[in-house]
Design brief:
The chain is of the alpha/beta class. The protein has a single domain, classed as Rossmann fold (3-Layer(aba) Sandwich). It has a 7-stranded mixed β-sheet with strand order 3-2-1-4-5-7-6. Helix 1 packs across helix 4 and helix 1 crosses helix 5. It is globular, with a radius of gyration of 26 Å. It starts with a helix and ends in a 27-residue tail after the last helix.
Length: about 325
């Protein structure tokens, strides 16, 4: 019995160091695997940032950029005038183009892009971007993102004052956006964001119609709408494409606001035809809004889209567990 016990003890003592060495090796393998994943992630984000920088260079020197900027300038000038912004503010915003030269390529390296600092000026526009898509893999989405970045620079909107969301963003894309300095929203708002009295540009290219309808509902007052600018799908185009009864039933806020807005179409060029087609700048003159009937403003029922076919937005499942994509 003693001999058997001694043999078992010797066997355990011989095996124990091997177990300790095995246990010690496993964390090192995990650490190595983690380092490998981190290195690959940094490499991937560097590739995406480089592609954004290259797209930005091409867009910046294009005729489309200068023409689109002129269109936005015309709209924002009128928009700011109705907000009684000082004339000096308009000069501050549009008088000096801060994109005389683009950043060097090294500026878009993952470790070298500084977050944009706040700018001085008397008019503090904010920006919200919905539905820009998977810019890491899609060239259309990437060009739309680069346009947004240039627009923020031109309008002197700090990137930290630009909120971005798309339910399809990958973790890589979220990290790239964080690196670029914009604020990535963590929750699907379905477009239901109130501006809370702050002049705001909404950048919503090729978004579902319900997203625009939700946004209008969330800001359904003369005061709020007069402080908004929407760059996105042409409302006139929506009116032309949809049957009147469908527009009024499923998207009532768009139907009701058509007589209360001004719209300027984006220029069309062959180079960016598929990227910015059917895009307009919309703003809401106080004079037009005040001419709408009282009944229009009293209707404030939240959209639910229960009977709406082909709903082109992804619902917030936490609020609506039964919602489908």
């Amino acid at each position: 019995m003693a001999a058997a016990t001694a043999a078992a003890l010797e066997s355990w003592q011989a095996a124990a160091p091997q177990k300790r060495r095995s246990a010690a090796r496993r964390p090192r393998r995990r650490e190595a695997a983690n380092r490998s994943l981190e290195a690959k992630f940094e490499s991937d984000s560097g590739v995406v940032l480089r592609r954004i920088w290259e797209a930005e260079k091409d867009l910046f020197i294009s005729d489309f950029w200068s023409s689109a900027l002129e269109t936005i300038n015309r709209c924002l000038t009128e928009h700011l005038e109705q907000l009684k912004a000082p004339m000096g503010t308009l000069s501050d915003i549009f008088g000096n183009l801060h994109l005389d030269s683009l950043p060097e390529e090294s500026d878009v390296a993952p470790d070298s892009i500084p977050r944009e600092t706040l700018v001085t000026g008397t008019c503090h526009l904010k920006c919200v971007c919905y539905g820009i898509g998977n810019f890491a893999t899609c060239i259309i989405a990437r060009n739309q993102l680069t346009f947004l970045l240039l627009l923020l620079e031109k309008c002197q909107i700090p990137r930290s004052h630009c909120w971005v969301y798309d339910p399809l963003f990958s973790q890589l894309e979220i990290e790239v956006l964080n690196t670029l300095g914009v604020t990535v929203l963590s929750e699907n708002e379905e477009g239901k964001r109130s501006i809370r009295g702050e002049p705001t540009i909404f950048y919503m290219l090729h978004c579902g119609t319900a997203l625009y309808n939700n946004l209008l509902w969330s800001n359904w007052s003369v005061d709020a709408l007069s402080k908004m600018v929407i760059i996105g799908n042409s409302f006139k185009g929506l009116e032309e494409r949809l049957l009147a009864r469908i527009l009024q039933k499923n998207y009532p806020y768009i139907a009701k606001i058509l007589k209360g807005l001004e719209e300027l179409e984006f220029p069309q060029t062959s180079q960016y035809m598929d990227i910015f087609n059917d895009t307009s700048v919309h703003w809401f003159p106080v004079q037009k809004l005040e001419q709408l009937s009282t009944d229009i403003w009293e209707f404030q029922e939240e959209p639910d889209y229960q009977d709406c076919e082909d709903l082109e937005i992804i619902r917030n499942r936490r609020e609506d567990p039964s919602a489908t994509d």
